[in-house]
Amino acid sequence: MRRLQVYTSLWAMQPHDQSGIKLPYDQVCEMVAGAGFDGMAIDLGAADVAVARKVHPNMVAQGLTPLIVAFPKTIESLDETLRMAKDFGAPFVDVIGQVMPIALDDMVRVIETWMDMSERIGQPIQFETHRNCITNDLYTTLQLIARLPQMRLCADLSHYVVDREFWFPLSEHDLGLISQILARSDSFQGRVASRQQIQLQLDFPQHQKWVALFKDWWREGLASWRSRNTTGDCIFVCELGPPEYAMTGPDGREMSDRWAEAQIIQGWIKEIWQDLEADDARANKA
User: Can you give the C-alpha Rg of the chain in angstroms?
Assistant: First the structure.
């Protein structure tokens, strides 16, 4: 059986909207569960292990599955995070590796060591497409996945749109590069970017071309995942970060309601999944 599981991020909930108020963890978890999310990512770049252990019981109480996002600064430090994630029952650890050799061969050795560590501990990992980490550059990441067939990705395409400063509309060549990333991705993260901004407001008219592009990519990614998996959970994380990810006006106030936007993206992803289910059902009848 295949399931879509839509998460949000603890980082995105601290604060969750323009009020700037950081709610207590029990209230955050109640809100997230009440809005129909299946889990919540705990970002160890924005928090620490102590926070993860503090919020985890509140997630359990609300039936939310934890996902650990790790920023290991040494090869060895991922070990402890993997063990904690396994204790928490996390489906995988999302690795944003801060060990960043320049040479591709050295990168390969780092990735291989982390994958071996994952297998030894019995806790799956995925490598997020993210700036300022070992997968910083799209071209290098494409070389890594070519060298390492077992390397699995978590696709946050916003980082590559900004990093490569893609012109709109994207060329067929560039779209093909993104398709290669999606074909190796086992989970996905949701925010809409442009070539100059990492996180756009979803309802501004000037942003609609980028919204449409990302929705197309999410559909392609979910369809690719379904073509490769007959069972299991497909995880999509709505990750709309607070300032300075979120744009602000001269008064410092955010220009949109991220909590409302996270639920909008959640609705889009569920609708896309349902459409793909219907497409499969029609194909099976034909």
Answer: 18
Q: What is the pLDDT of residue 218?
A: 98
Q: Which residues, in sequence order, are CB contacts of 227 under 8 Å at separation 6+? A: none
Q: Report which of 91, 24, 15, 87 is spatially closest to residue 51, judged by C-alpha positions.
A: 24
pLDDT tens per residue, range 212-224: 999 999 999 999 9
Tell me how far apart the alpha carbons of residues 262 and 229 are, in angstroms, rounded to a whole number.
26
The pLDDT value recorded for residue 286 is 75
Long-range contacts of 71-80 (CB under 8 A, 24+ apart): 71/44, 71/45, 71/96, 71/97, 71/98, 71/133, 72/97, 72/98, 72/99, 72/114, 73/98, 73/99, 74/99, 75/99, 75/110, 75/113, 75/114, 78/114, 78/117, 78/125, 79/117, 79/121, 80/49
- The partner residues of 219 in beta bridges, in order of sequence, read none
Residue-level pLDDT at 156: 98
Residue 285, pLDDT score: 86
Q: Could you say which residues of the chain have pLDDT below 70?
A: none
* Contact call for residues 127 and 111 (beta carbons, < 8 A): yes
